[in-house]
Amino acid sequence: MVLIEEIEPEELQQPSRPTVPTTQVERQQQQRAPETTSNQEHQRSQTATEKDQPQQTTVHASKEAEVLNRLQAVSVSETSRWRQAFEAILLQILKEYEGQDAKVRNGMESGMRKLFEHPYHEELSGVGNTDKKDILTVEDAQRVVFFPRLSDMHRYVVAFSLDTPTATARRQQLMKFKLMSVFYTLHRKDGSLMDRFMHCGGLASLAKLLGEDHVVIQSQVVELLMQLLSPLMGLPSMTSSLRQAHLHHQVFVCLRSGDLWRNFAKIIAEPHELFPRSHAHSVKILLGAIGWLHPEPGEISEVGLPDGMHETVEALKRFLDAAVTTPDVRGLAEDLLHELQDSPTVRADPLRGKRLDDARKDIFAPAAVGREDAAHVWQSLRRLGNEAYGAGLTLPAEAAYRLALDDGGATVPAEEASLIHSNRALVLLRAGQPSEAVAAATKALELNSRNAKAAYRQAQALLEQTQAASGQNAVDLTLRAVEAAELAACLSPSDAKVAELLRKVHECKELIGATALGLQPNSAEDMASLDAMD
Description:
It is a single chain. This protein has three domains: about 1-5 and about 65-200 and about 370-395, no CATH class; about 240-365, no CATH class; about 415-530, Alpha Horseshoe (Serine Threonine Protein Phosphatase 5, Tetratricopeptide repeat), CATH 1.25.40.10. It contains 26 helices and two strands. The protein has helices at about 5, 40-45, 55-80, 85-95, 100-115, 120-125, 140-145, 155-160, 170-185, 190-200, 200-210, 215-235, 240-255, 260-270, 280-295, 310-320, 325-340, 355-365, 365-390, 395-410, 415-430, 435-445, 450-465, 470-490, 495-510, 525-530, and strands at about 300, 345. α14 packs antiparallel against α15 (about 280-295) and α20 packs antiparallel against α21. The protein is elongated, with a radius of gyration of 29 Å. About 35% of the residues are buried.
């Protein structure tokens, strides 16, 4: 598999800089530029004429500004609130490359780490920013790229639709390709993100992106169009639901667009496959499109055919004349050519006028968007935390849970927030932070006093704290551990692990007056108890 990271020009090297301490789970790769210039460069600088000095000073100033900007971006990345959770996201991305050649997987990991450090925040600030007030920081851009809100899908749609000639808009083009790399590998698995992407006009933006002279991008776009269009094209377009009708409107806009027909025509006209099954997939999508565009009984038809159909007809003729395909694909191409040459009628837009305006107001109302953003954020981050914990990434899991609570805010129901705090308590215990685990478990019980796992984990954390405590502090911790364990036993009376923990805390209570408490740290078996994440 060809990676976008492997075919781009090399990024500018980063200058040497002090290493900022980060978390123990990070595996950050750093590139450093040479710290001193060569002797030859030094000699050339000494022999520069006075005439050259103004221009040279300008060049040096420009380079220094660029270096400072890059250093600032790296520094912000290292202290970013997303830093630890990014390791969990990276794990998800790299799962797609399990079993592949190590060079391919390492190339993707390196590319994603570079993208996290330099997430094109300046270019993203100009995407979909009509009032010029929405200036993104590096941290904002990291969120858009790796932890997008539902509303961030608008930026993806605008970015994919950009005209980015290599000669004049290379940075924007790279941003667009990197966004597609993460979108294709990761975000397309999130049904809520894909729903919002399509409502924002994502199908038409993919049709536009298909025109890029880049076989990896074209292959990804074709696969995404197949994934997103197929379920919708199988549903009746006549519906009372405005949201469903709005999706069918977006299907109509995409399938009737000249970009779709012209760009697929270019792929079909190629004498050889641009990517695996490029001819077959292109013909099948267009054949499905013309079938869906036929008006259903009782529907109004439109006058005029989509732009680009003439190019498609000529491309199909050349494709069939070349006789380079299999009999089944040839048959489909002949069917499509016959359909197009018969001047097919096209259905009218299934959603237009006042109903279309009403649908847009309903879907994109600021209050509704804010609620849906917050709900999606905490649910997706909790899932991320669960997956990270299951993979042994303790601190990234804790970071994901914490972000879920912070960004979800008041939209997180109390019982759900209790479960997330309880999960935080578990990962904090595993990370050797019992005092923080006690605080998390206590908060979980404040939100839901019947959370048995929170009570169990609170007792575990308190018992662990007694190992380093003495005097009255040890007494207080032990009594609190007994109280928490008794609550856990009351809530889960048949759980053997809870009963064992209750026995231990009572032993601790009996021994509290001794010079040494005589307790051993919790065993691995104890720590594994009640570990199922909520």
